[in-house]
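Reopening this ticket.

The earlier resolution said the output was attached, but the attachment link was broken on my side. Pasting everything inline this time so it's all in one place.
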Amino acid sequence: MKGFILIALLAVGMIAGAQTYSYSFTTNGDASGHFWDYADTTSNGDTINAVIRVKSDVAMNLRFPILNDEVSGTATAKAAIWGSNDGVTYIATGDSITDALTDDGSIWVLCRNFNYSYAKLEFITAGTETSTAKCYYSFRKE
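Inline output:
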């Protein structure tokens, strides 16, 4: 019976398929840096997130260039910025992009007048690809 339950749990995990990776950083006003660093391999339908605390009492301009390093296949990716004041409940800012990634491509997500305490960048892959990603970010006061 225990073996059956273990096999059932493994099957459910394999059917669910898509993985989610999360990272978290803290900034203090103007900031720049990078994350993901090609560390996690993503495939069709995977989602990776990064949450950054923006400690500022003024509106910010956010820039997220995402570099995609294709391992195999072809890809489409969507990236979107979400905002939150409590770090728990996120609201779509409407700043997103969906683009075909050719071989080793990149996409940019820009957001002006960002006025939340937390920024979450969400990157979702689609297609028949396997790839890794690296993201740079910069925040600048309005």
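Reporter confirms the inline version is readable. DSSP finds one helix and ten strands in the chain. The beta strands are 20-27, 31-35, 41-43, 47-54, 60-72, 75-84, 91-101, 106-114, 118-127, 130-141.
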